[in-house]
Structures are given as C-alpha cells and as structure tokens.
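Progress narrative, work stream C.
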Amino acid sequence: MALDLLGRIGNFLGGRRPWHELPRLLSMPQLVQIRNELRAKNLHDTEEPPLERKEIPADLKPELREERTVDGSYNDLHHPAMGSCGRRFGRNFPLEHVFPDTANLLNPNPRVVSRELMTRHQFQPATFLNLLAASWIQFMVHDWFVHKRSSVDDGIDIPLAPGDDWSDPKMKVPRSVPDPAPAGSTRPPAYANPNSHWWDGSQIYGSDNDTAARLRTHTGGHLRLEPTKLLPVDPLSGLHLSGFTDNWWIGLAMLHTLFTLEHNHICDLLAREHPDWNDNQLHAKGKLINAALMAKIHSVEWTPAILPHPVVGIAMNTNWSGLTGGDLQEVFEFLDDSEILGGIVGSKADHHTAPYSLTEEFVSVYRMHPLIPDDLVFCSASTGQVLEKRELPEVAGRNTPGVAQRISMLDLFYSFGVSHPGAITLHNYPRHLQNLRRDDGEHLDLAAVDILRDRERGVPRYNQFRRLLRKDPVKSFDELTDNAEWRTELKRVYGDDLDRVDLMTGLFAEPLPKGFGFSETAFRVFVLMASRRLKSDRFFTDDYGVPLYTEFGLDYIKKNSMLSLLNRHFPELAPALKDVKNAFHPWRTVGPA
C-alpha cells in the first residue's frame, strides 16, 4: 500500500514530465510506480504446460534447502524446476505480441543495418566509465542466459548487397532452436535457457555436475587455480577452465580469476570460523556468499556507474538495503515488510504475476556490444609504461591464456581501470565484432546477428516495444534522434517507416537522459528485471539470514565491494584506486604525468 500511494503521489505531482526530470523527492515515487505497473502487466509465462505447485517433502535433503544447486533447481521449493537450467525464457509482453515476424525477417537486411548504422568509424568513448564496466556486464550475462543454436548448415542466409566487402561468398547464421512445443500449441515459439536463470554465479561454478566437479580441488572448498594464481587452461578447448567460457576474451578471464580467488579466500575464512566443516560445506557456503557479493556489486556499484543519475543510485541501494540503511533494518525487523524501507534483500519472496524466469526482452536490452573497444593498451601498474598494444582478436578466444601469462593480472586490471569502454550508441559497434572469426572457424557479423535475433525471437521492434511498455511511440525521426546525419541514414535504411526501426537500432539512437549510459526505454525492462532477480530468489529474500549465510557471511557481504576485492587480491593497485569511490569509474594513472 505504501509503495502504491507513493507512486500515485509521484504521478499526480509529476504531471507529464518524465520521472528522470523531476526533483528527487518526486522522481523516486514515480519510478516505484513504474516498477509496480511493470510487475503487474509485463511478466508473462511461456512454459507449456505450466509448472505445477508441489508440496515440500518432509524428507527433503538438507542441502536442497540450504545450498544453491548446480543447475538452479529447488530455489522455489514448491516449484523445484522454476528458473533451473533448461527452463524457458519468459516474456515481458503478452504472447500475442511476440510471434516472430517471419515475413520481414530480413527486411531491412540485417547486414545493411549493421554496415549503414552500426559501423564504428571513430571510437566514441564513455569517459565516465572504465573498461571493467564492459567486462562486468558480459560477466553477468554469462551467469544469466544463453540460447541453443542450430548448425551453420541449417542456418539463415543473410543476402549480401552489391558492394558489400564481406570476404565470404555468403553469410549464413545459425538459427535459434525453439524448445519443443506440445502438439496443437498455438503459442509463439519459446526458447529454453541452458543456463540457470538465477543470480547464482554459474559462470564461475558451472551449471552441470561434471563441469562443477572439474572446477573444484575437493579440498578446503576451493576452486582450481594454478600456483601462479591463474585459471587452469582446458587442453580440449584451449581456453581457461571455468564455468562458462563462450565468447572468451581477456576481460572475462580477469573477472573469472578475481572471483575464483575471492571464493577461495571466503572458504579459507569460513574454515577458520568452522574448523569442523568439510570440503562440501565450505564450497557451498563460499558459493552462496560469493554469488551474493556479485549481485550486490552489480546492484549498488555497476548500475549506478553506468546510470549515474542520482535517483538510480538511490533506487539500486534501496533494492539492496532499503531507504533506512542496513543498520536500521537489523534493529527494526518489521521494515522487511516494505521493500522501499527495508530493501528487497531479506524481504519476502514474491514472483508477482508469473513464475520466475529471465525474459527474451531482458536479453535484448542487454545487447551492449558498443562497450567493447577494438584496440587495447596494456600498461604497467607501477610505472604506467605501455607494455603492449593489441587489437581485440589478439586478446580473445584461444589467444586469451597467452595474454594472461605475458601480462600480470595486476597490470591487466590497472590497464582496464584507466581505459574507457565505448558509448552505447549508433556508429560505435566494434569493427572486429562485425567481422568476427570464432576459434571454430565460424565467420559472422555480430551486429547483423543481433538485429536478426530480435526479429527471429519475436521481440517487437522499437516503437511497438515502447507501446507495450506504455511509453509513447516516437512520432518522427526527429524525435528518435537529435543527430541530423543519423536521421538521414535511418530514413534511408528503414524506408522512412518509423515502425520498421529495430529495437537495438532505436535503443542506440534514442537521446539519453542526463546521467544515463543507455536508453531510458531499455531501462524500463531493466528496472523491472533487476528487482525481480532479487525478489524471486529465496536466497536473497526468505532465506537471506544467519541460518543459511552465517553471521560471518552476512557481515562479509555487507562490508565488501568491488574496491575491497581489488585491494585485497591486488594491493599494489592502491595508488591507482586512491580516492576512487566506485571501481567502475576511471582510476588514477600512475607514473610520469
């Protein structure tokens, strides 16, 4: 009731002004109201048949109650399969609006959209961020979702226009493989997620028993690391050994290494607190604490860094600990009944209007490839001297382990901390990703694939996407972008038809509110799903307490941050991190000015 009342007050006082232009006192309740309306109208289940509620067995194994399972099952004890590996992506829009536009799958040609609107002619940096912010979101995405793909031979042919400089005679893209539908189904295709939908650190720990076992030392709860404190190299793939290594590059290897180090550190501290615990107990508890720490960093550090609007910072901190702050919440336990006062973490779990899953629209708004630079400079953390200059393919795929062996993790983190990612905008897509050759030989234009995937999976185009979020559609290309040159290009590519503009194109073209690193339209899905990933998860809600986490664990999560992790594992970074308030902000340079 309190949240609804605040929202109505915000709407009444705000009038027609968007929430992000209102004074802070008014914008916060209006944002709460937007989230509540999205919870009520923009969560739709795709499972056929729906998951059935089950009674919790009296003899349920204690570890299923107390630990995050490898595949994400038993998070909801009444619906053990909910959110687990292999469950379908949900939708943020009613199912009648998400059928694939098969008649216009290649209209306009995705390759033309890529070349004419996405190509990076000159790197446009996001100067308020460092390059770790780009690595971080890919690190998070790899915990959340992936789609099954067909073979290339069974793929989709993207025609090449006259004058196209593509080096192959044709461009063929694997299809997304739908989850099998029951006989007689009239629903649009739905797609299963081989990863767990939960925020459970699966990119570090693995999503199947065989992978999870390979990653462990089976001593002291630890994950495997070499004596050099680097991840082992898998002799079969030539990549580092970790839970999920698709699209591997040095930015991912750094974060996987950091959180593997952190897991082992947590286990060592737990072993001191609980000398009677065995390897499995230490590993499970370390995983629980480490996963929560990742979620906290994303919520209260990465998000306010890429969306440096003052209200977003308040909102994300409120999601985690409430307006009252953690200390008062511990004293006044009744505040847990109100998210806005006590925070989502530690509140009562609620799936709202649909069983929990990540959504296809959530996948789409996290297409943020412009963050990645094409050229990287690696410098010494002690002197600032340039060590190497490399192009993206030289630090990706099977080249990644060699980079980590040549350049220390200390110098790698410093180099990312003083470099900028790209701005999320048109004409800033990495040129190397538009001409990507994978280790397995597959050759593709990832920008064209991104456009194709939304059409193939039934994600509405930009204006319809806005309508379904109850935002006004843009009424002219002048409204779509404030860049006159882009307007001309957009009209040409889309035949002067606003309703044909693809979602990703519109999100990249849309003028950004002050203090936003990506579009406000994408933010609508973000604000819904960022809360949902916490609110549905019993390990962040009903079971976020001493019995599962221990007093040590809760205190550890509360006191730690990305900055504390970096300082702990790489103390030599202290000069670069001096006076830095957020680890994803640009760091101080060292060496001669």
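Work stream C, second folded protein:
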Amino acid sequence: MNATSAGELLGAGGPFVRRLPGFKPRAVQIQMAEAVEQTLAERGALVVEAGTGTGKTYAYLVPALRSGLRVVVSTGTKNLQDQLFFRDLPQVREILGAPARVSLLKGRSNYLCLYRLHKAQRDARLATRAGPLEAVAEWSRRTEHGELAELGPAAADHPLLPFITSTADNCLGSRCPDFAACHVIKARRAAAAADLVVVNHHLLLADFRLKEEGYGVLPGADAVIVDEAHQLPELAVQFFGERLSTRQLADLARDAAAELAEFRDMPQARAAVQALADAAAELEPPLAQVSGRLPYAEFRARDGIAELLRAVREALAQCAHELGRHAERSAGLANTAARAEELAAVLTRLSAEDGEDQTQVRWVEAQGRGGALLSAPVEAAEGFRRLRAAHPGAWIFTSATLAAGEDFSHFCRALGLDEVRRLKLDSPYDYARQARLYLPAELPDPNAPEYPEAVAAVLLPLLAASRGGAFVLCTSHRALGRIAARLRALPLPLLVQGEDDKARLVERFTRAGDAVLVGTASFWEGVDVKGPALRLVAIDRLPFGQQNDPVLEARLAAVRARGGNPFFELQLPRAITLLRQGIGRLLRDESDRGLVVVCDPRLRSKSYGRRVLASLPPLPILAEPGAALEWLAELGAAA
C-alpha cells in the first residue's frame, strides 16, 4: 500500500486537483474514500449512503485501483456500466498511473452468437431478411469483441436479435462448434484475468450460474463494490426465484423447429414442437390481459386456465421425449430436449396445486405479447447471506438513497447485512440556495377518485410559470394517463412515457428546454439531466406501492408473522427511499436550481409525515402557491 492515502489523493494537494479540470476537493468524498480504503484493507463490509454530488465513483475507484486486490464493481444498468468503464475509470487510471488490468462484462444478450448467426443464415424462414443478416455477417468478420452496441444506437431494437444472440437456455456451451471463437467466452476469460471487472447487478446475482459454467466473476475476487445498491434487494428477490414465460416457450419451439429443419425423418418431433408452439400461443392472451401482478391462485381459478397450463405441461413433456430420442444427432437437438425437460420441471413447481409455502410467493404478470408465471422468496436475506458467505472478501454497498433518515435497517435487513459498518454522508449541494420544496395544501385524500385531476390542477399554473423544464413523476400508469390528459392543455411540448423509448424521451426533453415529461417508476431514478433543461420536479403522491401486489402483501404478512409493524418496517422506509430518488432528479450539479413539488397532503396531516420530511434533503419548504410562483419567477430571472 502506498504511503499516500486515497483521501489525500482526492484532497487539495492531490493529483486530481492538479490534473483534472474543474475538480474540487469535497470533504464527503474524501471521507468516503478513506472508509472504502479501510474496508478493503480489513476485508470488511461497509454500507455507505453518499448524497448526490459526493463523487462516490471516484471515492471507491481510487482505493480500489490502489488496493492491489481483485475487485468486482457492480452497477445498476448497462448505461452506468458504460459510463463507469469508458469515462470514469480511464480518468482515474490515468491520473493515478495505475497499471491495473480492467474489463467490462455484460450479459450474453449483448454479444453476437456466431453459432446462431450461422444457423440464421441457413434458415429458410429468414429469407426475407437476407440483407440485414448479411450486414451482420459482414460486421461479424470485422469485430474483435462482438458487442452488439458496435452496430449503433438501433442495436437494442434490431429485429434479428433473437436469431443472433444466445440465452442461458439455448447456449450450447462447450458442445458448440463455435465455442473457441465465442465472444461471450472471450469476454468472461478477459474478466477472469482482470484486476478490476465492471458488471451489472443482474450478472452479479447470476454468478452462481456463471460459476457452474466455469466463468464466474466472483470466484477469486477479493472485494465487491455495489454501486446503486438500493436496487439490490428487489433484484435479489427476483434472482432467488423462478420464472417461466410464454416468450421462453415460443423461443424453445422456434429453436427446436430450426434444429429439426436440418433433418427430414422426424415427423413426430416436428408435431410435438408444433403442439408446444400452439399451446404457448393459447396461453399468451390471458396472460397479456393481466394488470400488474396477480396471485397465481387467482389466475389459475379463471375459466380455462388450468386446461391451458396442462396443455403446455403435456406439450413440454412430449417435446422433451421426442427431441431426446434424437439428441445424439446434434448438440442443438440435445440442448432443446434438455430445455424442454427443465421448463417442464419449472412449470410443475410454479403451477403446483398443493398449499402455498409461506416462505415463497407465486404470481403472474403480463410481459411482451404474453406473460410469465413467477415465484420468489418472500425475503432475499438468507439467499444473499449464502452468496456473501461463498465469497467472503470485502463488500461495499453504496447509493445516494439507502437510509430512512439516519436508519439503515430497512436496507440491511433486506439483504441480511447483520454486522456491517454504516456511514451516511450528506450531499455537498447548497439546498438553501439551489432549491425549494413546495407542499400544496387543500388537496383531497390521495385515494379519492378525483385526486389525479386535482394534482393536475395544482401543477398547471406552476408548469406555465416555469415554462416547462419539468418532470411529472407518477406512482401508477393510471395516474399518469389522467394527469397527462389534463396537462395537454399547456402550450408546451408534452412527452409521455410509453409514447417513445425512454432514452429518446430524455434526449428530446433535454434538447427542447421547455418540455414537460410525464413518467412512472422508470423515470424516478437513473435519469441524469443537468442544467436549466430541468427546473421543476413534481411528484403526485407518496410511493407506497401498488395495492394488492401479491409480492408486497406476502412481505407484509411475513413482518406481521414475526411480530413486527409492516408499515414502519417496510412500507414507510421503502416509500422514503423511492421519494428521495425522485426528488434527486432535480439537482445533478452544484449550479442546478429548481423547485420540487410533492402533492401528497399526508405529509402534513399524518404523524409519519414528519419522519418523511426529516429524511429528505434540507430543502426550504414553501406552503403557499404564491411563494412557489415567486420562486419560479426568480429562477426565470436568473436564467
């Protein structure tokens, strides 16, 4: 370890001040860097909330690169992965002169599958797409890494994606004739040899499966740093559960048909595959019509559903039998036979009619053209404890929103983090100068039928005064539709979630400068609009979650069963965390200024409202509409 500490490197006399234009030492960043450095040295565990503007990325990268340890850094999304790997990491490495080998690892759907590309080129059903296929094939001969992002911004929506990428289900592994040239395997080997690997949370949690394939990123790691860690409890619940979707069934039928196309002597297998495709198609409409999450028992009780599920089960069993009879003829046939057998087993577990396991919750939800059957543990703590126990190095969890006030117990309990150091670092932003919080009075109860229209009525004069530049964040799609309908009266560009891709909506919003963007959950976090394009953030109500959500209901029941108070242990801390994420959209830079509007009257009328307000950034509170309009006028004058 070098004599100079990570904190000193980020301080007034360090190289970042000298070499990085605009860099300013921040006491909270230095404090976090020193805490991370100590945790890495001790192979301990740290949970650190670092408010917006702390500079937490540098605060963990500097000690990580200097530690001499093999470190895995996990982020929330692919966009954050790219930002970290292509912008932040090169800057820190250059300033430190760090020789560490670094690697970026994404999920397999981000890489070209050579085997599936070659099969697609021979597939008569894709004859009408010969031109795009040849363009991909030509690129495949030039690419070094095979990452589909190289094809440009349209890669994420490329119509050939299902035919040129692999999944955990259809990958042939070492039996693949293109295994030696596989881009996924090359990326995993590079990650295994690196000193610092950047992954996302889905890959981090899927590491048990990767390890079984021989290319996990956690084995051999001395430390794991989880950025945007507030997302981890919900993702962990999903990972430790099971799912079966109509998309998986359709993909299996399509892949099996493609394998059978190379043989002409298996009519029974072809019939079985067609029966599966038909059964999956029959199941799609009733699943697509499900609103939100529906308890599995309620779904199964609907007319005809039990018969549809039985038809899928029988079709899977027949596919497994017929394809398995010919498995020795090709690796592809062996793979599809194994997939049919595994999906049949998953469906049997998900559709079991015996009594509900109180530690598990089962539900269905719409996805794409159809939907999925899912199960998950009510709590992920035990599963995550096992994950950490299998990799006992240093673990660091950080985000701008992990605590409710000073209390980290909600986050730590969800992941079974019993003995960890906890550190809360406030944002360095000058909230008294930069922003105000307006709490409108005289709104009806949020559960009243007319509430969305009342919210819109409050917002209309504010949005007119701000001349747009606003996010309107809603807690449900129903509220979004009703509020957006009223806001169309404004002579301003109105952008509504669902009318375009999320990234394009944000780009259009930023470019316009006077737009109003109305969105739900996906816009409450991970959206970074700096500067005057965003000057008002409005939130319709406290985000307590959707009523009748079977997953939430099961968690509430588990808290009651152990004698706890589900509202104060689970619902309120969760709502506070989400609310803080939404409010955090406003100030993304020390020069940003604006107004936050939270329309929920319970902040004033309920006793827990004081706890919510005490957990928010120290924004001066406005209670009168005139004061809010005056603040907006001041912002306009300063622009």
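The CA atoms of residues 288 and 370 lie 4 Å apart. No further action is required on this item.
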